[in-house]
């Protein structure tokens, strides 16, 4: 599929319509078309919210943003748990062709400050529970960002002000995006091997989420009800929100967060040796690379050239293999892989063995530099209650009895209170390695 002429195939255009007008225009037309259908079941309040009702609030919010002078050169953000109005600033911004980037209330203090400095949002819509975090992080980051509160606040503007009627709302029309390859949304990487990056997603790629050739995982159009726990910080929530509007189906909106599986659309697959760049055969482990018409534009304010190979495939950073039936298995992160005397050591494999020991609650494996051998594997574990008598030596022997000689934990085992992880549950191996090298563990 050639995306350089900013067009979709005819069958995609016939299905979703207005493809070249941008995401906001498509959502606007869909919400008018399905205006009487339920868009949201609010689980915490037992309310229902139709597409037409949400459209009216989104229009009023868009008019308020426009009145405040916010333009497509700005970024609009939110930091809120899910509720009836949590998606309204997102939709309103798309109506105006304004980029958005969203925070999650569970983000760490340091990650929030980093992301604030990275995207420099003009305005953040925040719920009362997330307000202390955002106030503290804005103060420390010294970013001049306006806060609007979902709820009552004497210090900040209340979101209710954005829902006041306007004489312009009946004549409102969304902007037409001149180029569907423009960035519409900035999501953030998980920060497994460093600080999170801003991933720029364009209108075309997001439209592809609900085109004929895009993801259809919830059944027939208009007949599905989606259960959503995640906030707009996550691609799963963005996809569900866009699909529910465009396809006229409903979401059950829940406040409580629970990690959810993310479905990916991938048109082509290659498992590649990251050193030689050669394509590997079945059951050979290498880097998982992919290419799709709906992939990201790049990273926000960061050079993205290293994310692609010479053929334009995205380097996922995942170590994977596929079997004879073309089933793919992700086994580790390439940046976490290290070598002992030329042998590839995959931390996830050794971590999996450690976790089979009844005493081990959490496990991480890192490489400790060695002058002659490259790296020596070290295990870092947190123990279950009742196993405090288990020693590092016990665990080292346990692994040694189950692996080949080159995979032994030659740097030993360290027992800690907890294994450091990102907000997405991924192990912060680099952070723990640095702590070991600094003598902090």
How would you describe the overall organization of this protein?
- The structure is a single chain.
- With 441 residues, the chain is of the alpha/beta class.
- It folds into three domains: 10-253, ANL, N-terminal domain (Rossmann fold), CATH 3.40.50.12780; 268-334, Luciferase, Domain 3 (Luciferase, domain 3), CATH 2.30.38.10; 341-437, ANL, C-terminal domain (GMP Synthetase, Chain A, domain 3, 2-Layer Sandwich), CATH 3.30.300.30.
- The protein has helices at residues 10-16, 23-33, 51-67, 88-95, 109-119, 131-141, 203-207, 235-247, 347-354, 392-400, 429-437; strands at 38-42, 47-50, 75-79, 99-103, 123-127, 146-150, 157-158, 183-188, 198-202, 225-228, 250-253, 268-272, 286-291, 298-299, 314-322, 328-333, 338-340, 343-345, 360-370, 374-383, 413-415.
- It has an eight-stranded mixed sheet. A four-stranded mixed sheet has the order 2-1-11-10.
- It is elongated.
- Residues 1-17, 212-222 and 257-269 have low confidence and may be disordered.
């Amino acid at each position: 599929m050639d995306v350089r002429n900013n067009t979709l195939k005819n069958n995609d255009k016939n299905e979703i319509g207005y493809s070249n007008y941008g995401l906001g225009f498509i959502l606007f037309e869909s919400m008018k078309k399905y205006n009487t259908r339920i868009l949201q079941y609010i689980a915490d309040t037992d309310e229902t919210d139709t597409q037409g009702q949400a459209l009216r609030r989104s229009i009023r919010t868009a008019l308020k943003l426009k009145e405040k002078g916010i333009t497509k050169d700005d970024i609009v953000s939110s930091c809120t748990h899910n509720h009836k109005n949590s998606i309204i600033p997102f939709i309103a911004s798309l109506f105006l062709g304004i980029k958005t980037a969203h925070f999650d209330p569970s983000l760490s203090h340091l990650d929030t400050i980093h992301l604030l400095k990275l995207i420099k949002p003009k305005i953040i819509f925040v719920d009362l529970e997330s307000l202390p975090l955002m106030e503290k992080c804005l103060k420390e980051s010294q970013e001049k960002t306006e806060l609007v509160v979902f709820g009552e606040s004497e210090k900040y503007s209340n979101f209710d002000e954005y829902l006041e009627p306007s004489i312009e709302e009946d004549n409102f029309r969304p902007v037409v995006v001149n180029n569907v390859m423009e960035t519409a949304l900035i999501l953030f990487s998980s920060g497994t091997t460093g600080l999170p990056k801003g991933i720029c997603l364009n209108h075309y790629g997001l439209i592809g989420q609900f085109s004929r050739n895009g993801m259809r995982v919830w059944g027939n159009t208009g007949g599905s009800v989606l259960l959503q726990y995640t906030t707009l910080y996550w691609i799963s929530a963005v996809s569900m929100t866009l699909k529910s509007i465009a396809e006229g189906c409903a979401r059950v909106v829940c406040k409580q967060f629970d990690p959810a599986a993310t479905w990916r659309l991938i048109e082509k697959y290659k498992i590649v040796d990251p050193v030689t760049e050669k394509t590997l055969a079945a059951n050979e482990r290498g880097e998982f690379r992919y290419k799709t018409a709906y992939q990201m534009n790049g990273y926000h304010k960061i050079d993205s050239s290293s994310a692609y190979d010479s053929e334009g495939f995205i380097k996922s950073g995942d170590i994977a293999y596929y079997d004879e039936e073309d089933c793919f298995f992700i086994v580790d992160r390439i940046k976490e892989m290290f070598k002992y005397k030329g042998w590839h050591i995959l931390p996830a494999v050794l971590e999996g063995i450690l976790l089979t020991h009844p005493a081990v609650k959490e496990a991480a494996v890192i490489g400790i530099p060695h002058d002659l051998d490259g790296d020596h594997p070290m295990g870092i574990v947190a123990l279950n209650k009742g196993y405090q008598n288990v020693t590092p030596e016990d665990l080292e022997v346990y692994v040694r009895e189950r692996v080949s000689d080159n995979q032994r934990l030659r740097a030993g085992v360290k027992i800690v209170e907890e294994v450091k992880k990102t907000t997405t549950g991924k192990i912060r191996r680099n952070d723990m390695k640095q702590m070991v090298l600094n003598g902090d563990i």
